[in-house]
Amino acid sequence: MTTLSIIIPVYCVEKSLDRCLQSIVQQSFTDWEAILVDDGSPDRCPAICDAWAKRESRITVIHKANGGLSDARNAGIDIAKGDYITFVDSDDFIAPDTYLPLMQQLAKRPEIDILEYSLICQYGSPQEKKIVFGNCAYTDLRTYWLDGQAYQHSYACNKLFRRSLFDEVRFPKGTVFEDLHTLPLLLEHARLTVTTSLGLYYYCANSEGITHRASGSELKMLLQGHIIMYDKLNLQHSATEEAYYMHILNIQLSTSLLTGEPPQLPDRKIIHPLQLESNSAKIKAISLNLLGINNLCRIYRILFRMKKPR
To answer: 0.85 exceeded by the pTM?
Structure first.
């Protein structure tokens, strides 16, 4: 059995696809299969995929009608043969010698179900940021989500998953920010989640990506995913819980701004506003306590309109 299945959805990435695949083929770890899922791409991507499959026996290509990122990933999961699964977006790439130390760690510690490794977000843009994880282990969803701040990096791309976690889980078709909706479902089945400083994933900036151009309806999907977690975790008033609430509040403010709709996020008091990390978060928390979430959303919309050039 192939040890690692690498699932790569492909759609309109003819300029970056070769770079992505080259970064995989050149890995020092060799016991992998790559599943390229051509999601009905209208450019040269189908031909590029087929050309790679002809010269590299470990690459398999699926050609299918366009169904979106979740549908493409699910198609790859359905035929994956590896003990572990990872995902690479076809406009991204991985650093040399990334998979070997990760797979060695999984071999030494077979109790690990999810292994998360470091990444560079928005690579190639002014917002570029490197996230290097400490070597930490989490045995439950709550601790990983709150203490490990997994909500800040719920990406599927920088994680290796035990294949059996997907026996009852798939990415939600037709939903954007699908990683946020899927990771908690996988964590519910995971015995041990580990973060490591080893390896590096390059999450490249994409001006056409959903992160840059999300509409109000799309942000509502992101918000809904967090509200599901808010309800599941039954947040109280520890520092980590209040930090997560403030993270959701930022998404709520942006969603209300774009949609004009009243907030979905429940109102609450922040007991320890001065323990929040940034000054802007402290000011926002104090404002929330004084005004309530409905008035805060209204004022946020008014201030944005005042700043908007006419």
So the answer is: yes
